[in-house]
Amino acid sequence: MKIASATHKGVVRATNQDAYGAGELPGGVIYAVVCDGMGGANGGNIASELSVKTIVDQINASYRMGMSSNSVRRMIETAVNAANIVVFDMANANETLAGMGTTVVCAVLNCNTAHISHAGDSRAYLIREGKILQITKDHSVVQSMLENGQLTPDEARFHPRKNVITRALGVSESIEVDYDEIEMEPDDILLLCTDGLTNFVDTEEILSISSSVPLYELPDALINAANRSGGGDNITVVTIAL
To answer: What is the crossing angle of helices 69-93 and 40-62, to 10°?
Structure first.
């Protein structure tokens, strides 16, 4: 498996409140975590970095070769819930950090199976044979309006409440986390990203860039495209291929 990653503060924000972690486990298993913090200049940065560290530490401590799919799922969900508790407790212990939280999208690729867990509007995409599929579904006000027929997809893309999310790590004592499982094929690309990419680069452009740029250069190429389109948010991209 191959993995590449990059992050950038964008061209508008003064700081980068995104965080990510990625690495390899015994047996060639790959993991990646992407978080987009919220809650002010200090809080968002702390929430995202703390969540990534907690999830990465939990996965490294818990993974064992030969784990079943159910065991991998429980491992990821346990790690994400641990991060939620750590961030929630810190926010409650320090009033200057009150209200901080973070999105999360986490993937573990075991053999050909990608186990994906997420909360918020950071996303996972599958790129296969000239097509792109959004695996995760945003936990956001606009997504709910879209599902209820109150908005068209074009209206949703530019809606002023687009960044209002309905789930995030650290804002309550418990968190509901969505889980997806997909079978990867040769030449597939799994892409994890924050909304700093998807708010400024549409899926067709993501697909076009992915078909013309080598995997190891893809995160930087996508970040550059987002910055050319305004770069109004922090941008993080992780790409994984068999």
So the answer is: 150
pLDDT (tens digit, 9 = 90+) per residue, 70-129? 999 999 999 999 999 999 999 999 999 998 999 999 999 998 999 999 999 999 999 999
CATH code: domain of residue 72? 3.60.40.10
Number of domains in the chain: 1
Tell which phi-psi region holds residue 27, choosing left (phi > 0), alpha (psi between -120 and 50) or beta.
left
Helix, strand or coil, per DSSP, at residue 79: helix
Coil/strand/helix, residue 106: strand
- List the one residue out of 122, 120, 144 whose CA is nearest residue 134: 122
pLDDT in tens, 170-207: 999 999 999 999 999 999 999 999 999 999 999 999 99
- For tokens 């599929």, the residue is 133
Residue 205 sits in which domain range?
2-241
